[in-house]
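Priority: medium. Attachment 1 of 2:
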């Protein structure tokens, strides 16, 4: 028989809310998934949660239930009977920064009789599922199994932990999911994590077996420290998983940049350029640049998120370790002695590492509290997750510069082309202007100076042409006289236009 005394199952749930509508005071009402967890609560309790949340929209850590007594936690208790077992538990909802969080605790309300481990964990899991309205909350959650072994020295704690884990996560694989082991107040801790970064699975499980009920009761006060610690952990993992999705999108855009823009960009020795196509490419590149820069900023934001939450995780872990050391000290020194010692002496006993402080060394031995496995997670984040995202950002940032350079190059080509067109237009406009001005002047001079009866070359040629053309009869047609100065003007304009063209050509060649 594999038994547990006072088996307890705790669920820590986190519902991240990263985007809020502007000027929206009713924050929690935007989180339908979080509200669904509370469907079995009385309506007046749900209203209290919403009211407290709306009254404190800027709080970093907000307990969403009113305290009945100043020295009590704001919780909502429940009890029931399932399969002949009396169950007791509570809700503890809070808002951590932008995240709604819930600690849901449920235990078999019998601190004396051993319970079959597999059956008791299954019953508690079923009850918690009912309390959260059978809502699947597998994305950001941590399960904590706690209890006491009837004969700790005679039982294989790992074997019991395997049974508990299988009862909680039927498809779990102990060998694959096992992470590390530690100790808290003399109790054995096992950490398991069933996950993939696509979040089709993400079950973080902590299993703790305490030496006795008294220590388990003391350790229960740590659950309000676990809540923010696990929040920082899930926030880090969540930010990392988002960074990988952003990375895939950036890599896709980077491939488009290389294959559709860079490779198709006209070479230096191209004899012909499709400027209309270049303009269309410029529009596409600008659109890609906007999307790429936004995605890159999101990636940089995930780096900041991981860094901030890693720092908060490390700080919270230090507080938990100090609290564990303090509780260890209480196990060695009677309460009447502790109450008489000054705070400075207590701090020295707890924190000193010198040889003259044997108590400090004794209470820190692994058999009492060793939370190094939690510290190893922060090391893994620093050496793996954070480093990976930073490298991704560094590797993908050149894509932004490529797009900017490509836009500048296309703009440069089109601007040069436009300048060349403008110069050509000015070139021919100048020649045409000289020709028209000269022609107008020639017409004016010819009109004033030529006599109708004078025998000028143009008149002579027109007369000859009229004589040879039998259809032309006397008198002269109406256009005969106006045509003579016009012909002189056109000739003068043509001559001056040719001279202007030659002059400009010679100037360009001499440069």
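Attachment 2 of 2:
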């Amino acid at each position: 028989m594999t038994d547990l005394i006072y088996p307890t199952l705790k669920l820590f749930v986190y519902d991240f809310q990263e985007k809020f509508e502007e000027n929206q005071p009713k924050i929690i009402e935007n989180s339908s998934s979080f509200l669904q967890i509370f469907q079995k609560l009385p309506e007046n309790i749900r209203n209290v949660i919403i009211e407290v949340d709306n009254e404190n929209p800027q709080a970093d850590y907000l307990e969403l239930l009113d305290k009945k007594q100043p020295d009590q936690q704001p919780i909502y208790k429940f009890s029931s009977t399932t399969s002949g077992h009396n169950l007791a538990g509570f809700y503890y909802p809070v808002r951590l920064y932008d995240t709604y969080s819930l600690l849901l605790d449920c235990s078999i309300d019998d601190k004396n009789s051993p319970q079959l481990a597999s059956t008791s964990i299954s019953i508690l899991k079923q009850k918690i599922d009912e309390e959260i309205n059978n809502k699947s909350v597998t994305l950001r959650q941590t399960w904590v199994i706690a209890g006491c072994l009837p004969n700790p020295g005679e039982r294989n704690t790992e074997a019991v932990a395997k049974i508990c884990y299988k009862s909680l996560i039927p498809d779990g694989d102990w060998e694959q999911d096992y992470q590390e082991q530690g100790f808290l107040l003399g109790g054995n801790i096992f950490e398991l994590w069933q996950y993939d970064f696509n979040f089709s699975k993400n079950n973080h499980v902590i299993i703790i077996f305490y030496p006795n009920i008294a220590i388990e009761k003391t350790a229960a006060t740590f659950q309000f420290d676990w809540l923010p610690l696990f929040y920082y952990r899930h926030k880090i993992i969540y930010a990392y998983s988002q960074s990988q999705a952003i990375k895939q999108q950036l890599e896709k855009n980077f491939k488009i940049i290389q294959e559709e823009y860079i490779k198709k960009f006209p070479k230096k020795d191209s004899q012909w350029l499709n400027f209309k196509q270049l303009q269309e490419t410029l529009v596409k590149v600008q659109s890609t640049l906007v999307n790429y820069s936004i995605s890159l900023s999101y990636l940089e934001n995930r780096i900041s998120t991981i860094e901030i939450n890693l720092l908060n995780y490390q700080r919270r872990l230090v507080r938990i370790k100090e609290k564990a050391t303090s509780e260890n000290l209480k196990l060695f020194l009677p309460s009447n002695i502790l109450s008489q010692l000054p705070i400075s002496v207590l701090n020295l006993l707890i924190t000193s590492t010198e040889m003259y402080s044997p108590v400090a060394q004794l209470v820190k031995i692994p058999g009492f509290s060793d939370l190094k496995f939690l510290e190893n997670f922060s090391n893994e984040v620093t050496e793996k997750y954070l480093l990976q995202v930073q490298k991704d950002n560094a590797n993908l940032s050149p894509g932004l510069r490529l797009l900017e350079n490509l836009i500048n190059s296309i703009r440069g080509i089109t601007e040069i082309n436009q300048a060349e067109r403008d110069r050509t237009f000015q070139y021919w406009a100048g020649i045409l202007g000289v020709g028209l001005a000269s022609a107008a002047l020639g017409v004016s001079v010819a009109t004033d100076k030529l006599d109708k009866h004078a025998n000028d070359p143009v008149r002579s040629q027109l007369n000859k042409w009229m004589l040879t053309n039998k259809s032309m009869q006397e008198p002269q047609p109406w256009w005969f006289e106006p045509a003579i100065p016009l012909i002189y003007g056109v000739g003068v304009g043509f001559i001056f236009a040719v001279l202007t063209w030659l002059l400009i050509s010679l100037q360009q060649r001499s440069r």
